[in-house]
Specification:
The protein is of the alpha/beta class. 32% of the residues lie in helices and 25% in strands. It has a ten-stranded mixed beta sheet with strand order 5-4-6-7-1-8-12-11-9-10, sandwiched between helices. The longest helix has 19 residues. The protein is globular and about 60 Å long.
Length: 350
C-alpha cells in the first residue's frame, strides 16, 4: 500500500460520551446509551428504543448534525497543533442522497456551518462525501491522494448522522427495518458525530495505528434490492484489503464492523468469513473477537467509520486490544461495501 496512513487522534460525541475517551471507556465497559425515546411506533402504539446524545435540548435537522460533529472535530484540531485548522483538509462523511436522513443543503453548506461553529477557516480541499456508511473509507482513499499530490501534513476524516426524526424513522419502519415491539429484525435509531486525525506514516518508524489495506466491493443483493444476499461485495472488499496488506484472513486478531441488529448484515459477514477461511490451506482455528459498538450507540450511519477507528486507537493506546491486526468492514444501504486492515506497530517491531 503506497502512502501508509496513521490514525493520530480521535474525537467522538455519542449517546454514551461527549469525547473519545469517555465513549471508548463506556463501550469497553458495556455501558449502553440506548433508552426509550420520543419516537413513536404507530403499529404498537409505543415509544421505541433510541441512542440519543443527551444534548441540552431536543431538535432535529441540519443544525443538529453540526452540533454533533463540531466537538469531535475540535478534539482532532487540538491534537493537530501546531498545525492550524486552515491547513488541515476536512473530509466529512454524511448520509447518501437517497437516504431519508439526507438534507438537501449538506453538500453545499455543512462545511461553512462547521467553520462558523468552530470559528476557524477551512482548507480548500475540504469536502462532504455523501455515500452513507462507506463514506469514511472513501474519504481515507482520498486522503492518500491528497498526501501524494499536495503539501499536506494531516487530514481530518469525520462523520455525522442522526436518525432521530419521526419522518426518518417512519420511512425505515415502512421498510420493516427498525427494531419495534412487532419487528425483531431491525436497528435502533441513533446519532453521533465522530472524527479522526490522519497523518502520513512510515512503515518502519514510530509507534501508532496504521491503515495498511483498503478494499471496496458492491453487493447486488443489498437491503434495498429484491435479490438475495450473497456476500460477494463484502468478500471482495475484505479480500482486496487483505491482499493490499499482504495478509491472510486468519492473520487478523479481531473485527470491527457496523452490524446493527439487521439479519442481512450478520448473514453477509458470515458468508464472507466462511469463504475467506477456505482460502488458507492450514487455517488457524481460533476465536475472533467481534466488536460492533452500534449495540451500545444505536445506528449511527455515516459516523461509523471514524467511530470504529477511534475505538481501535483507544484499545491499542490503553493496551486492551486483543492483538495488533484488525479487520474493519462497513456497508451502505445501496450495496457499497468497504474494508480496512489496521495494524498497531511499536517502535522496532510489529
Amino acid at each position: 500500500m503506497d502512502g501508509l496512513l496513521e490514525i493520530k487522534a480521535s474525537g467522538m460525541v455519542t449517546s454514551i460520551g461527549f469525547n473519545a475517551r469517555a465513549s471508548c471507556a463506556a463501550i469497553r465497559g458495556g455501558v449502553s446509551g440506548v433508552k426509550t425515546g420520543k419516537l413513536w411506533d404507530s403499529e404498537s402504539g409505543e415509544y421505541i428504543q433510541v441512542g440519543k446524545v443527551p444534548l441540552p435540548q431536543w431538535w432535529e435537522g441540519f443544525g443538529k448534525l453540526v452540533e454533533l460533529v463540531a466537538p469531535a472535530i475540535n478534539e482532532c484540531l487540538i491534537a493537530a497543533k501546531p498545525v492550524e485548522a486552515k491547513d488541515i483538509p476536512l473530509l466529512l462523511a454524511v448520509s447518501s442522497s437517497e437516504s431519508p436522513c439526507h438534507f438537501g443543503e449538506l453538500e453545499t453548506s455543512l462545511i461553512d456551518e462547521l467553520e462558523h461553529k468552530l470559528n476557524v477557516g477551512h482548507h480548500p480541499e475540504s469536502r462532504v462525501i455523501s455515500d452513507g456508511s462507506v463514506s469514511g473509507v472513501v474519504a481515507l482513499n482520498l486522503v492518500q491522494e491528497l498526501f501524494k499530490n499536495r503539501k499536506i501534513s494531516c487530514c481530518i476524516v469525520a462523520g455525522t448522522e442522526s436518525f432521530l426524526h419521526q419522518g426518518v424513522v417512519n420511512a425505515y419502519m415502512a421498510q420493516q427495518r427498525v427494531l419495534t415491539p412487532g419487528n425483531s429484525d431491525g436497528f435502533i435509531p441513533g446519532e453521533a458525530g465522530c472524527a479522526v486525525l490522519i497523518k502520513k506514516a512510515q512503515r518502519d518508524k514510530g509507534t501508532g495505528l496504521r491503515i495498511i489495506g483498503i478494499g471496496f466491493g458492491v453487493e447486488a443483493g443489498s437491503v434495498e434490492s429484491d435479490l438475495p444476499t450473497t456476500g460477494d461485495g463484502l468478500t471482495k472488499a475484505i479480500r482486496a484489503a487483505l491482499t493490499q496488506a499482504n495478509l491472510k484472513f486468519s492473520d487478523v486478531d479481531y473485527w470491527l464492523n457496523d452490524q446493527n441488529g439487521e439479519a442481512y448484515k450478520f448473514k453477509e459477514a458470515t458468508i464472507a468469513k466462511i469463504r475467506l477461511e477456505r482460502e488458507r490451506e492450514t487455517p488457524r482455528h481460533r476465536r475472533f473477537e467481534v466488536w460492533h459498538p452500534i449495540e451500545f450507540l444505536g445506528e449511527i450511519g455515516s459516523a461509523i467509520v471514524p467511530c470504529l477507528l477511534g475505538l481501535a486507537l483507544g484499545a491499542h493506546s490503553f493496551g486492551y486490544a486483543p492483538g495488533h491486526l484488525a479487520l474493519l468492514h462497513v456497508g451502505s444501504d445501496n450495496g457499497k461495501r468497504a474494508a480496512l486492515i489496521l495494524e498497531w506497530k511499536r517502535e522496532g517491531n510489529y
